[in-house]
Specification:
1 helix; four-stranded mixed beta sheet; four-stranded antiparallel beta sheet; disordered C terminus; single chain
């Protein structure tokens, strides 16, 4: 005798359960991504990109004067030896790219520039002394209320 289909226990539809599970995971992921980094404070403003060409033994920037703000300095090693990029100035102390960039490599360094002058240089042994340094200026009121003249 053949059993009535109503008497046979139904096997759960595995495909529907998998789709429901995937939708739940996707929803939770979107919530986490949307909330990540939200501390209730305003988000950091987008940075402006500045390319720094590093050769043996010179740094080339597209400009020497900058407005206050956040910048991403992209160090491009166009030389034949390893180089790196460092920036020191008001509020920026010993910021540098990670490791030594080999010829053809590049790396980014994000800094927030305030009024004042900044030293931009290659921190690899002896390269700064061989000419791999320059100074950039951010005009405006310097700390203490005096205006940075750029000299």
């Amino acid at each position: 005798m053949q059993a009535d289909s109503r008497d046979t226990p139904r096997r759960p539809d595995v495909r529907n359960q998998s789709l429901a599970w995937a939708a739940t995971v996707a929803g939770l992921t979107l919530m986490v991504v949307a909330c990540a980094g939200d501390t209730g404070s305003p988000s950091k403003p987008p940075s402006k990109q500045v390319t720094v060409q590093m050769t043996d033994f010179h740094l080339a920037l597209p400009q020497e004067t900058f407005t206050p703000g956040t910048y991403t300095f992209v160090a491009v090693n166009a030389g034949q030896t390893g180089h790196a990029l460092a920036i020191d100035g008001p509020g920026v102390v010993d910021q540098h790219t990670q490791g030594i960039l080999q010829p053809g490599q590049s790396a980014s360094l994000m800094v927030t520039l305030h009024p004042g002058s900044y030293d931009v240089y290659c921190p690899v042994d002896g390269h700064r002394g061989e000419g791999m340094e320059t100074r950039i200026i951010v005009p405006g009121p310097a700390p203490g209320g005096t205006r940075e003249s750029g000299s």
